[in-house]
Amino acid sequence: MIKQNPFSLYDFLGYFIPGGLMIYLFLFIEYLENLESKFELKTFVADNSNFQLDKFLFFVIASYAIGHLLNFISSITIERYANWKYNYPSKYLLGFEIRGFWKAETRSGILWRILLLILIFPVTILDLVLGEVFGFKNFYTRKLDKFLIALIKFKGKKLINKLAVGQLVEFHNDNVRVYDFNRIISHYTFEHTKSHQFRMVNYVILYGFLRTLTLISIISFWYILIINFAEIKKAAVFLPLIIVGGISYIFFMAFMKFYRRYTLEGLMLIAIDENLK
Asked: In this predicted structure, what is the pLDDT of residue 103?
């Protein structure tokens, strides 16, 4: 059983580090804008009073609060985009048909999707070019082989029939793709496989951390673009935009990798569960 601490690893990687990184990034940009001579990291840290330890408590509180905000925003932007475009990992791992990004039921749903594409533009454009055209999406949305899909669906049906009461939708029916069956699977496997809890928690921590880093990279992209919009054609501005945009997509791919691994861990645990025969 995992012992719960007041300040867990998820708090540290999910909230504190992203929040602190955002503060330091802001201070770094502010310092560069006021810089009149050659930049030196040692001088930057020594001269900037915001980096001194006497303000450490305020820094911790501010970082933690900002980290919570960044984590939440990344969940309704980065993760929402991934789920709208590729569906949940539990669905594409089992080969269920992807609805598609534009399959919204209302007009407001379409508007939200358009707004989201603009907000996370560096990721969406690179996901289109590198993900779709060059097939990078196969690294993070690849489905399982037919044998594993059949086995997991069989065990999943057994599990749901074992736990639930009343008439249920057959798990092997494609209509099950509209149900959140993975919520039952993930809770069941976490409770009944103590030896795998640490790995599952690590995957959650990592994909949450990388999702937030993706958002921070996108914020940096928009900041560089807005501040230097008048000089956008110059290589001195265009190159940083390409670099920061590329970093945001790398973080996105890493987020998708661990998002997929977390779900796959739960699915594989029911596949090898000897109680589901």
From this structure: 81
